[in-house]
Amino acid sequence: MSDFEPRIIAFLCHWCTYTGADLAGTTRQQYPPNIRIIHLMCSGAVDSIYILKALIDGADGVLIGGCHPGDCHYQTGNFKARRRVAILKNILDQMGFKEDRIWMRWISASEGKLFADTVTKMVEELKKMGPNPMKQLWNA
Amino acid sequence: MLRVSEGKTEGAMIGFLKSLLEKGVVEAMLIPKALPSQDGFAQTLIRDPEKLNGVCILSPTLPVQSARVASFLSIKNLNRKVAVVLKACEIRAIVELSKFLQVKLDHLCLVGVDCPGTFEVPDYSKMAQEGKGGEHLSREIFRRMENGEVIPPQGYSFRNACQICEYPITKADIHIQLFGYKTDQTIGLEIGEKLEKELEEKGILLDPGGESARRGDVLQKLIAERTKRRDSVFQEFKGMVKDLGSFLDRFSSCIRCHNCMVACPICYCKECVFRTAIFEHDGDQFLRWADRKGGIRMPTDTLIFHLIRMSHMVTSCVGCGLCDSACPSRLPVATLFRSVGDRIQRMFNYVPGRDASETPPVASFREDELKIESGAL
Questions:
Q1: If both were cysteines, with which of A27, A43, B190, B247 could A66 make a disulfide (CB 3.0 to 4.6 Å apart)?
Q2: Domain locations in chain B?
């Protein structure tokens, strides 16, 4: 599996994690290029359908990045997103999909290094897991 | 409590409801009534107290979720008091809908009735043709509710959802109690203090008398039995659906009619994402997927439809089972939702329909829950 390059879809909030990713770039942090970023105004805008559609359509992992608790630009968007992600993960777990392919992380605008480390770690973990079995389902 | 004369249980209940209308406690009443053909029931909105003759308070079918009806009724400009006579799952759905601002409780008076279970609509219609329905059936049900062992007529069974329903009763403004009562003599009535005072002022006199001594035990036994059956159904279902692949196999006959969504009282969105053009991809896109996977099953959205509908509303699923009844392919939709929902509702220590003052899990949060360090959720 050494030549397997996982593909990650990331939903990042405008105020924290997206800006953190920007900082990672401007400060020349190195991280693997396996990530495709989708820019949202708030992690609270992430619906479970985005996550599941990405996984079924062939992503190997989904990263949701939001502000640290208490830092949400819209007060509570990140907390609501956290519940939504927890519910989806619980459903998938009960349907027998137990792999940890949905990561939710709090990364602030000043944590470029943390963003780069998170992506590096996620790519490592996904490489260990191998390709997402969900994309083998005959259901786009 | 209510005293029953000459063994006419239904008559005593109707008499009480009539007095609510006559004395102006409520100005209208939503209540099931038999169809002229006598082989089914429909909800009716009644203004004239005389029209209450012949209503069926314990209607043995559930053709539509009355929570939906209550939603239409109450959401825009309802300024007069309306009583709605409902089963526990319907009241619990109303409570959930009120949390999502789809029902206004201000002018509704919820009248709950102990529910022994309901039959599928076609089953009941057959039953009626065979002469096993109607008054004969209700008399038999009333009689057996005393010890809680309600047995359907031979060759028939209650709806699957009813067989595993652990909420035969629920909180309401007025609760008509049948379990544990000798229903040919007395019926229990539980009324909130404020409302009781109002009834008294308006001259509706109720017989004093406490709850039947047997009621607690009868209910406990019934709920224990249903819970046991529920757990074994969950177990069986989990054995059948081991992973997403086996789930897809089990649900391969899903024709994506979205009936389960239409019948569901909790799915209230005016424009559901599954009814938009989101899944109308370009032909080329389908070919690209087929290319990448070697082939795909068409149409493509079965898995995502059920999982996402579940992630949106399963925390509020009251288990009325109307999705099951609505499914033309007879898929165990309700079992899926109840079995998955059970664990998720527990995760948030949430019982849908328990109390209108609670906030549903998807609309709230606690800061100190579901820890994310830089570790996993």
A1: A43
A2: 2-227, 242-363
Distance CA B256, CA B28 (A): 38
- Cβ-Cβ contacts under 8 Å, A78 against chain B: none
CA torsion through residues A28, A29, A30, A32, sign: negative
Name the strand (E) or helix (H) holding B2.
strand B2-3
Q: What is the pLDDT of residue B283?
A: 92
* Annotated domain spans of chain A: 8-136
CB-count burial class (<10 Å; 0-12, 13-18, 19+) for B375: exposed
* pLDDT, position A139: 65
How many A-B residue pairs are in contact by the CB < 8 A criterion?
A: 117
The answer to which of A74-83, A129-138, B227-236, B326-335 has the lowest mean pLDDT is: A129-138
Please give the residue of chain B at the shortest CA–CA distance from A90.
B344
- Element at A69 (helix H, strand E): none
B290, two tokens: 């087929």
Q: Evaluate if residue A110 carries a pLDDT over 90.
A: yes
d(CA A1, nearest CA chain B) in Å: 19
- Say how far apart CA B309 and CA B267 lie, in whole Å: 8
Task: Give dist(CA A129, CA B41) in Å, integer.
Answer: 55
Cα(B30)–Cα(B47) distance, rounded to whole angstroms?
9
Q: What residues in chain A have their Cβ under 8 A from chain B's Cβ atoms? A: 47-49, 52-53, 56-58, 69-70, 76, 79-80, 82-92, 94-97, 100, 102-106, 114, 118, 134-140
Domain A8-136 listed as CATH 3.40.50: yes
CA distance from start to end of chain B: 52
The per-residue b/e assignment along B17-32, b for 16 or more CB within 10 angstroms, e otherwise, is bbbbbeeebbebbbbb
Q: Could you give the C-alpha distances from A26 to A21, A29, A110, A112, A115, in angstroms and in order?
A: 9, 8, 12, 9, 13
Estimate the share of chain A in helix, then strand, then coil, as percent rounded to the nearest 5: 45, 15, 40
For tokens 């049948």, the residue is: B178
How many other CB atoms are there within 10 angstroms of residue B224's CB atom?
Answer: 11
Strand-pair partners of B43 = B32
Which of chain A's residues have a Cβ under 8 Å away from the Cβ of B315? Answer: 87
CB–CB of B365 and A82 under 8 A? yes
Task: For B305, name the nearest residue in chain A, comparing CA atoms only.
Answer: A49
